[in-house]
Design a protein that fits this description.
about 180 residues; alpha+beta; Ribosomal Protein S8, Chain: A, domain 1; 2 domains; three-stranded antiparallel β-sheet; 9 helices; globular
Length: about 180
């Protein structure tokens, strides 16, 4: 199997890593081959294993959406980890993006940190997108919280929602540490 993905110019170096270490590590963990054209930003992934093929695509997408490679590689190491990318332009026009991203981040990063801490997820706000990395149920709740913020809900309302959802998930036997 083979696919080509476009990676933003400023994220190519992150994907390659110092002396190619990140690229090599992804290849070693997955058994897939990654070819990077640093001039065009085109990344070609080749892989025989369909599951690993999909996971490597997610790792490349996670890095291209602003995640640190160490966090992105959790997608290869843990079957329960998933990536979701929210395109903010499907919710608001470009002229409102800065304000909406500010609402999601919160004062000095407090809202983003609250979402991450309460749900044990990672959130990256990059360009016109918000990417969430974590287990499936937590990512779904984080997405809902971000949608609430985009729609104008107060931060305190979203925090109460997150705390309630965290309790519900804990009650179902999930661990949230």
């Amino acid at each position: 199997m083979e696919i080509e993905l476009n990676v933003p110019e400023d994220r190519i170096g992150v994907l390659i890593g110092k002396e190619g270490e990140i690229k090599k590590r992804i290849e070693e963990l997955s058994g897939c081959r990654i070819h990077i054209n640093s001039k065009t930003g085109v990344v070609r992934i080749e892989c025989e294993d369909p599951y690993k093929f999909m996971r490597v695509q997610d790792v490349v997408k996670a890095i291209s959406h602003g995640f640190n490679p160490e966090i992105a590689m959790k997608l290869l190491e843990d079957d329960m980890t998933t990536l979701e990318v929210i395109d903010l332009t499907s919710y608001v026009p470009d002229r409102h993006l800065q304000r909406i991203k500010g609402r999601i981040i919160g004062k000095e990063g407090s809202m983003r940190k609250t979402i991450e801490d309460l749900l044990n997820v990672h959130v990256s706000i990059y360009g016109k997108t918000v990417a969430i990395l974590g287990d499936v149920e937590s990512v779904a709740v984080a997405r809902e919280a971000i949608e609430m913020l985009v729609e104008g809900a107060q931060h305190s309302t979203v925090v109460r929602f997150l705390e309630r959802k965290r309790r519900e998930l804990k009650m179902r036997g999930m661990e949230w540490y």
